[in-house]
Each structure stands twice: as C-alpha cells, then as structure tokens.
C-alpha cells in the first residue's frame, strides 16, 4: 500500500476536489489535493526523522465499521493483498497484540521499478482513537532480487470512532524522495491511494454486516 506515495495515474489532476469535512483532514499544514469516491487526499511538506525534506500524503474517509474490525483488517494478510491495489504479495510477520510487521511487494508500471517494503506497525489506543504508527525496518527480511526496497517510510493510521458503527480513518505516509518527477508520480499516487482506500472500505463494510 505504501508505495502509492511515490507512484501516480493519468488524468487524476483534472478530477474535482471536494471541501475538507473532517477534523482529521484539518491537521496542521495539510492541503487537500484530490477527492474521489468520498475519499480526500491531502499533502504537506515535512522534515522526516532522517532530516530529509519530504512530502507527506494523507487519505481520509469514513466507513460503516468498528475500530476493532479495522485493526484486524490491517493485520490480515489474506485481506491485505485484496485492498492493496498493485501489491503482488502481502505477508504479516511477528503478529503480536500491539505490534506486527508487514512485507509488501508492489508491481509498478513503467518507468518505475518494482518495489518492496518491510514495515513495523505499533498500536496505541487513546480513548476513542486508535493510532497505528508505521516505520520501515531493514533488518527483518533480505531484499528480493529485481526489486527496490522502500526506505525512510514513516506514517500512521488513525482510526476514530464516530458512534453508530461509523469510523473515520486516515492513513498518512512519507517515504524517501523519488528521482522520478512528480508530473509522472502524482497521478499514480492519487489513483493508487484512492482505489486502495476504497477497496479497504468495501472489505470493512462487508465484514461488519
């Protein structure tokens, strides 16, 4: 899922953008750049923990589900391969109550090389909000031949219960800057992110029926 922060699709910039509606979407510094299927995308410049200037991307949407179902969906390998659009593999390792690691392979279109990511997830519960912090780790699995390892990944899921079996979900992430121009990557970012979040929402709502 995460490589869609540096990947993109044709015509995305021509689609209309709806106004911000959620508290999560209004976090300091974010500017809305895209909207589709009741999912909004936002961006802001930040300096990551490695001291590098990067762009952080965030998706925000609501779903008819519960926080517990969302967390279980995030750590489910069989479901992960279904909602991570463009992923060729999705495995969950070291699956414990508050932490787990995911391994994801992404089949990306030319001119981008295929990528993989090894990501540690750490869960923290704060009242009606659950946060799952994400960071890349390099000492868990070796690099697969022919793929590029995603580096300097950091971000989080924020899951907020709104009551009446509705949750607001945001996913924000940044990675090491790509050498590929934004003119090429931005459309893929927008498309992959909205399609993945839409697929996740559909699975969540099916699971909550």
Automatic annotation (TrEMBL):
InterPro entries assigned: START-like_dom_sf
The name this protein goes by in its record: START domain-containing protein
Gene source species: Imperialibacter roseus
Lineage: Bacteria, Pseudomonadati, Bacteroidota, Cytophagia, Cytophagales
């Amino acid at each position: 899922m995460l490589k869609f922060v540096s990947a993109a699709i044709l015509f995305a910039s021509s689609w209309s953008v709806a106004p911000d509606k959620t508290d999560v979407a209004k976090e300091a510094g974010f500017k809305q750049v895209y909207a589709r299927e009741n999912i909004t995308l936002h961006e802001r410049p930040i300096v990551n923990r490695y001291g590098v200037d990067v762009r952080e991307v965030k998706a925000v949407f609501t779903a008819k589900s519960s926080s517990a179902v969302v967390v279980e969906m995030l750590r489910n390998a069989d479901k992960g391969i279904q909602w991570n659009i463009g992923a060729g593999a999705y495995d969950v390792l070291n699956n414990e109550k508050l932490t787990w690691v995911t391994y994801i392979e992404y089949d990306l279109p030319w001119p981008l090389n295929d990528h993989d990511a090894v990501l540690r997830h750490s869960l923290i519960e704060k009242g009606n909000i659950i946060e799952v912090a994400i960071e890349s780790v390099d000492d868990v699995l070796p690099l697969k031949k022919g793929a590029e390892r995603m580096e300097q990944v950091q971000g989080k899921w924020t899951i907020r219960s709104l009551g009446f079996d509705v949750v607001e979900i945001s996913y924000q992430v940044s990675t090491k800057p790509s050498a590929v121009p934004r003119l090429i990557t931005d459309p893929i970012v927008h498309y992959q992110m909205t399609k993945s979040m839409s697929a996740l929402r559909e699975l969540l709502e099916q699971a909550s029926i």
